[in-house]
Design a protein that fits this description.
Radius of gyration: 21 Å
CATH architecture of the largest domain: 2-Layer Sandwich
CATH topology of the largest domain: Nucleotidyltransferase, domain 5
CATH superfamily of the largest domain: 2-keto-3-deoxy-galactonokinase, C-terminal domain
């Protein structure tokens, strides 16, 4: 394989992703594992990383630039949060010692907000990726996922942000609550989704009642799992959009993430007359990590 110049790492709670980067920032190879932060003790982090990247290493130290939960209190080593407002691509990383001399580790810090209290780890690199692609971007970055982020970007800075636990709520309700009997299967009714989005976007205070209606419709009217699943997703996303309205109303919005989830959020916002730009999360993460690596290289020369 062509020589790896450095390694980009996005270390989440449930997954570890890494990319071998060559000359000019080109991706030579990529790998992932289920060795997320949530299942590791502190002594497990270095072996988990080496299992993934060992084929890319040579005899001399290879820089590893890592973001995400690897820098949490329960991670490899804590990288303290930077408060907003701040430029996400210009963070000074933590550089802990490693047992294996073939890697030189740089862990990037997350970002915090004092009021209302909020934090992020990893999403700041996707934000940096947006800025790297378009330094003049002034608007909102929406990153849907387990914990969806709404991030206000202006003058190449994160100005403010809010987190919604929509993805986690969907997982809990669809897998652990009484609604699990009513949302089975992989089919998805888009008309039911649209209707549910509008329902809680206009009346978010009715969310708890609307959720149980999914169960009742299944029992009394044999509502399909495809409709039930779509309604659950739409009700939760609609309630999130109602809360996030100060972020997206009248703003330029870019949505980044997994294509299927990005499409749902774009569809929901389009019902409100918001035309969104879209990007996939890997592209944004890599762009942000490339920017962080470039700043690190500048500082070392």
């Amino acid at each position: 394989m062509t020589q790896t110049h450095w390694i980009a790492v996005d270390w989440g709670t449930s997954q570890l992703r890494a990319w071998a980067i060559g000359a000019g920032g080109v991706v030579l190879d990529k790998a992932d594992s289920a060795d997320g932060m949530g299942g590791l003790k502190q002594a497990d982090f270095e072996p988990a990383l080496l299992r993934l990247v060992d084929p890319w290493l040579g005899d001399t130290p290879t820089p590893v630039v890592a973001c995400g939960m690897v820098g949490a209190k329960q991670g490899w080593v804590e990288a303290p949060y930077r408060p907003v407002p701040c430029k996400p691509g210009e963070a000074t990383p933590i550089t802990p010692a490693t047992q294996d001399s073939r890697i030189r580790l740089h862990i990037l810090p997350g970002i915090s907000q004092a009021s209302p209290a909020d934090v992020m780890r990893g999403e700041e690199m996707q934000t940096a990726g947006v800025i790297a692609d378009n330094p003049a971007f002034d608007g909102i970055l929406c990153l849907p996922g387990t914990h969806t982020k709404w991030i206000h970007i202006s003058a190449e800075e994160i100005v403010s942000f809010r987190t919604a636990m929509t993805g986690e709520l969907f997982a809990l309700l669809s897998q652990r609550s009484v609604l699990r009997h009513s949302v089975g299967g992989d089919d998805f009714d888009r008309d039911a989704f649209d209707s549910a989005v509008g329902e809680t976007l206009s009346r978010p205070e009715r969310l708890a009642q609307s959720l149980f209606t999914i169960r009742a419709e299944g029992l009394l009217r044999d509502q399909s799992g495809a409709i039930g699943r779509a309604r659950l997703s739409g009700l939760l996303i609609g309630a999130e959009l109602a809360a996030a309205k100060p972020y997206w109303l009248g703003q330029q919005v870019l949505i980044g993430g997994a294509p299927a989830l990005v499409a749902l959020y774009a569809r929901a916002l389009e019902t409100q007359g918001v035309q969104c730009l879209t990007r996939d999360s890997e592209t944004l993460t890599l762009a942000g990590l490339r920017l962080a690596h470039a700043k690190l290289t500048e500082a070392e020369t």
